[in-house]
Write a structure and sequence with these properties.
- There is one protein chain.
- The protein is of the alpha/beta class.
- The chain contains seven helices and 16 strands.
- The strands form four sheets. Strands 3-6-9-12-15 form a five-stranded parallel sheet.
- A hairpin with a 2-residue loop joins strand 1 and strand 2 (10-12).
Length: 314
């Protein structure tokens, strides 16, 4: 034992102290035995197979930072970027990002594949193919985000310029991660990696957007803290949400074993030009019609027609 105890400002080595260690050693042995028993069925442990990699939160965070620097050069990454050096910086960052991305996609494919005899080369080639498709899609992701920045700017009189929104607005930061994660999900990446990407923004901003949600262009989140957008939500274009809005599921249908049935459409549909004010809750597979306004602190579980305003009665 090498741990040191502090007493009177002096560090003591327990190996030089006279005391009976048998009791605590027995407790350690018993605890290890219980932690490795069938009581937990091995479900809370990742069983490594043939040294296959596990997705890395640190690497995924680096990937997101590189993607931000590619989409918004100068605002993220090196601030010294200018028009004459832009091509060089984009090339360097794209190469770094591609390397990290295919490695993390490969790790996710290995995590999903429990077969110890799986073809590593096949999984590697699939990861590289998806990564190439993602790189190719970056201009389209940037175009979508351009509309989101514009929507936030036009909807907030306090915003002085696009740069302020890109650097300082939590709503945009969460939307950036969502659009990256959603594209990866569309390209066939298992939900683990996209979820890790959106959870990075969740921790940063308090905005929780599932990468499976479908969100149109000109999307704006104002203030943002506490916003929740569920997996099967469908949002049209020019939708605006304020802080504390929940687009969630009303109930969870269960199977014959009383387990929740996964993958079914259970979250709201918001059509074009919908505005949802602070702390409103919309639950279930309901449709909020075009140009509808949902007032603050309202609870909605039914369809709302086009051009309708819903407010709490005092």
């Amino acid at each position: 034992m090498t741990a040191a105890l502090c007493k009177g400002g002096r560090f003591l080595n327990p190996d030089n102290m006279k005391y009976d260690r048998s009791e605590y050693l027995t407790e350690i042995k018993n605890t290890v035995g219980r932690l490795t028993s069938q009581e937990f069925d091995g479900k809370l442990m990742h069983q490594n197979i043939n040294d296959q990699p596990l997705p890395s939160g640190k690497s995924i965070a680096e990937f997101v930072e590189l993607a931000r620097a590619i989409i918004f050069p100068g605002f993220f990454g090196k601030s010294s970027v200018n028009q004459s050096t832009l091509t060089y910086h984009l090339g360097v960052n794209l190469e770094k990002m591609y390397q990290i991305l295919w490695e993390q996609i490969y790790a996710c494919l290995c995590f999903e594949n429990k077969n110890p005899e799986c073809d590593a080369d096949l999984l590697c080639n699939k990861a590289m193919s998806i990564s190439s498709a993602f790189v190719k899609s970056l201009p389209d992701i940037k175009l979508d985000l351009r509309t989101d920045v514009e929507a936030i700017y036009n909807g907030d009189p306090a915003a002085k310029n696009f740069g302020e929104i890109i650097l300082a607005y939590p709503g945009l930061r969460a939307i950036v991660n969502y659009r990256i994660a959603h594209k990866l999900l569309d390209l066939g990446v298992s939900v683990l990696l996209p979820r890790m990407i959106t959870e990075l923004a969740h921790r940063e901003t308090g905005i929780d957007i599932h990468p499976g949600a479908t969100i149109g262009r000109y999307f704006a989140i104002d203030h943002g803290t506490g916003v929740v957008i569920g997996e099967t939500c469908i949002l049209g274009s020019h939708v605006k949400l304020y802080q504390g809005v929940t687009l969630g599921a009303k109930s969870f249908p269960t199977d014959e074993n009383n387990n929740p049935i996964k993958g079914i459409a259970r979250h709201p549909i918001l059509k074009d030009n919908v505005v949802v004010y602070a702390n409103a809750t919309i639950l279930g597979r309901v449709t909020i019609g075009e140009n509808a306004v949902i007032g603050g602190n309202t609870w909605v579980t039914v369809d709302i027609p086009d051009n309708t305003s819903v407010f709490n009665k005092k």
